[in-house]
């Protein structure tokens, strides 16, 4: 059946391209023109159908690079459009201006069929190779187009229905093409009537998002014929430079500028008019729109046409001082911990209120979400900031040592102890904050003693006969379900209530809306620790944004440290990232497997393990080397690193580093 249709199709194309009308197949003019080009210009032979050309991995990366930042800006639009068309059986392609597919959203259940049809990454849908098709013909015509089934030139593609719309840069050149395609569809072209306006709408949204991104440091006038639409969907955008000079405009604005140039032809040669020549306005009127007008908009007359446009002003972004100019220090204060994530905002608002309150704070969150960082920031922003912050990882200290570590002991209190005795960590925190990490791992017997410390505010060192008063603020953290532990009899309920004076729950990184901010902050902090300037390229940023981060900020930090340690030159690209973080960005689809990028949250379960490379990352290797050099003497290593011994234990545990002889773990 398909072979017969293909034969019929080839005959039709041959007849029409030879100028012989085929009344049985009424062909649209735009399609006919393209078929003619395929035969006359590109020398394609309709009698020899061929599958779509696919670029090599390197060639695809080269095509991706110039528009990588656009892909990053376009992500939300691409995902939204895909969510709408996927239930209708369509897939989505974004190609560069030559028709090479640089981004793709497909369907898992159609992998093989999509692959065979050329609907996947790296496929070249330029008219020159693929013949008449939505993408290629859209690029040639410079406008949105549907290419339905037998309108395709090449008989290989006649089952497909495709609709593509161009995406223009602020200068009006096509920079990319947005396409939706389906392997099967009803015969009639009308069945695809929904596609053209939908793809055109999203192409325009992406175009405008790109425009606003490109001119984010410049005042932009946004205008519309409707007063009520201008703020949220003003169709025209004009970026203005010094003295109101127009730097660029989107499609709507370019139409106004063209009308202006036609009316006053000298403009056509003298370049772009100023905004005050386009609109009947003073520059002050335009630049003052945001502050002077009650609803931040005003009507102006378009000089060339006499029509009215409602104009508003989008002021240039002022970079957040913390995110851009100020490197994040090792212990970020509360304000530096988040960008615009709503859950983090709520959390930090509460944390600010708790700064100087004498309540115990329990911080929960998956591993690596920054529980200790939050505890330290809370400490640093309160009145105890100048006093010690002592972090204890209850899971990292061997059970036999935890009591003496926490409570300390007097000389001769037990065999094996230091001759001079030891001040416990609780006492070391006197005046400041005691941060008990992994509190769920605290042995039951010690829970009772800790409860006494909290209730009485005094500590009884081992071997002492009188308690010592302590003034500490206690913060605890856990990634375990304490309620379940209490239920199972592994945790004292009364202690839990003491510790849980206030609860701060850190969201996992993959759920944070401010991932961009976190990536930037962590990167800048790491760069600040090293000499030299390094840039995080947009393709690396896109990959990092897509990563599911089961190990949260710690994993992110390690991935960036890895990239900084191994990259060459002055920028980090997607290829410098550990393989686990590249997702679809650096990975070439294997035979029969179509590249797809589902939303991060859908791909990796929350419980997914931290990848193996992390254990072998540079941080782990460096620690292992340092431990070996110091004969596994933890105190010495802690001094070298400028951290506490529990921190060294914690890191060892995290990286799975086990000393060759456990006895050597006892400090000197
Ligand atoms: N906002 C942040 N900015 C910079 N680095 C951060 C931030 N949050 C966390 N980190 C880094 O991520 C790593 C993990 O942070 P932290 O130890 O606070 O996590 P955690 O939730 O306490 O982990 P665990 O559950 O394993 O104890 C640390 O190296 C820390 O410096």
Automatic annotation (TrEMBL):
Sigma-54 factor interaction domain span: 337-565
CDD domains assigned to the protein according to its UniProt record, in alphabetical order: AAA
InterPro entries: AAA+_ATPase, AAA_lid_NorR, GAF-like_dom_sf, Homeodomain-like_sf, HTH_Fis, P-loop_NTPase, Sigma_54_int, Sigma_54_int_dom_ATP-bd_1
Biological process terms in GO annotation: regulation of DNA-templated transcription
Nucleotide-binding recorded as keyword: yes
GO MF annotation: an example: ATP binding
The organism's place on the tree of life at top rank: Bacteria
SMART domains (UniProt xref): AAA
Leader sequence residues: none
Pfam families per the UniProt record, alphabetical: AAA_lid_14 (PF25601), HTH_8 (PF02954), Sigma54_activat (PF00158)
The entry's keywords: ATP-binding, DNA-binding, Nucleotide-binding, Transcription, Transcription regulation
PANTHER family: TRANSCRIPTIONAL REGULATORY PROTEIN
Protein name: Transcriptional regulator of acetoin/glycerol metabolism
């Amino acid at each position: 059946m398909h072979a017969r249709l293909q034969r019929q199709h080839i005959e039709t194309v041959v007849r029409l391209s030879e100028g012989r009308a085929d009344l049985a197949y009424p062909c649209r003019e735009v399609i006919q023109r393209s078929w003619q080009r395929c035969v006359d210009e590109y020398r394609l032979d309709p009698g020899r159908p061929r599958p779509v050309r696919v670029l090599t991995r390197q060639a695809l990366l080269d095509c991706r690079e110039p528009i990588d930042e656009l892909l990053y800006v376009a992500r939300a639009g691409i995902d939204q459009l895909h969510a709408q068309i996927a239930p209708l059986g369509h897939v989505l392609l974004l190609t560069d201006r030559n028709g090479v597919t640089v981004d793709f959203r497909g369907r898992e259940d159609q992998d093989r069929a999509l692959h065979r049809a050329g609907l996947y990454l790296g496929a070249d849908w330029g008219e020159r190779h693929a013949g008449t098709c939505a993408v290629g013909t859209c690029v040639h015509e410079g406008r949105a187009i549907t290419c339905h089934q037998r309108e395709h030139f090449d008989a290989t593609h006649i089952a497909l229905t495709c609709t593509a719309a161009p995406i223009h840069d602020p200068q009006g050149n096509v920079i990319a093409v947005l396409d939706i395609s389906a392997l099967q569809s009803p015969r009639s072209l009308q069945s695809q009537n929904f596609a053209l306006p939908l793809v055109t709408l999203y192409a325009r949204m992406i175009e405008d998002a790109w425009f606003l991104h490109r001119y984010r440091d410049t005042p932009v006038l946004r205008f519309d014929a409707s007063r009520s639409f201008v703020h949220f969907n003003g169709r025209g955008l004009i970026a203005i430079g010094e003295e109101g000079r127009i730097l660029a405009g989107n499609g709507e604005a370019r139409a106004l500028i063209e009308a202006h140039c036609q009316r006053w032809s000298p403009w056509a040669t003298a370049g772009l008019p100023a905004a005050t020549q386009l609109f009947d306005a003073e520059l002050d009127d335009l630049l003052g729109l945001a502050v002077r007008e009650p609803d931040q908009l005003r009507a102006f007359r378009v000089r060339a046409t006499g029509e009215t446009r409602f104009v508003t002003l989008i002021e240039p972004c002022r970079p957040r001082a913390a995110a851009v100019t100020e490197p994040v220090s090792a212990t970020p204060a509360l304000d530096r911990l988040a960008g615009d994530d709503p859950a983090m905002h709520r959390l930090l608002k509460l944390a600010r209120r708790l700064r100087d309150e004498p309540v115990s704070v329990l911080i929960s969150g998956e591993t690596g979400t920054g529980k200790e960082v939050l505890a330290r920031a809370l400490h640093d922003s309160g009145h105890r900031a100048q006093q010690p912050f002592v972090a204890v990882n209850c899971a990292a200290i061997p059970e036999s040592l935890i009591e003496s570590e926490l409570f300390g002991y007097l000389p001769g209190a037990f065999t094996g102890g230091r001759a001079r005795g030891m001040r416990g960590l609780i006492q070391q925190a006197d005046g400041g904050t005691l941060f008990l990490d992994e509190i769920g791992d605290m042995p039951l017997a010690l829970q009772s003693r800790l409860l006494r410390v909290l209730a009485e505010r005094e500590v009884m060192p081992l071997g002492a006969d009188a308690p010592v008063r302590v003034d500490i603020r206690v913060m605890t953290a856990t990634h375990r379900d304490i309620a379940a532990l209490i239920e199972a009899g592994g945790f004292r309920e009364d202690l839990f209530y003491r510790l849980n004076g206030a609860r701060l729950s850190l969201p996992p990184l993959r759920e944070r809306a401010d991932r961009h901010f976190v990536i930037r902050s962590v990167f800048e902090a790491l760069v600040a620790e090293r000499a030299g300037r390094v840039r995080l390229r947009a393709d690396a940023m896109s990959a990092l944004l897509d990563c599911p981060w089961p190990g949260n900020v710690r994993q992110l930090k390690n991935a960036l440290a890895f990239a900084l340690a191994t990259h060459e030159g002055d920028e980090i690209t997607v290829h410098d990232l550990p393989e686990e973080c590249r997702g679809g960005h650096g990975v070439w689809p294997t035979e029969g497997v179509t590249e797809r990028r589902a939303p991060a949250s859908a791909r990796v379960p929350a419980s997914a393990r931290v990848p193996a490379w992390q254990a072998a990352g540079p941080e782990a290797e460096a620690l292992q080397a340092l431990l070996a050099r110091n004969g596994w003497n933890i105190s010495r290593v802690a001094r070298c690193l400028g951290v506490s011994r529990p921190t060294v234990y914690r890191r060892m545990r995290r990286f799975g580093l086990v000393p060759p002889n456990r006895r050597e773990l006892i400090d000197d």
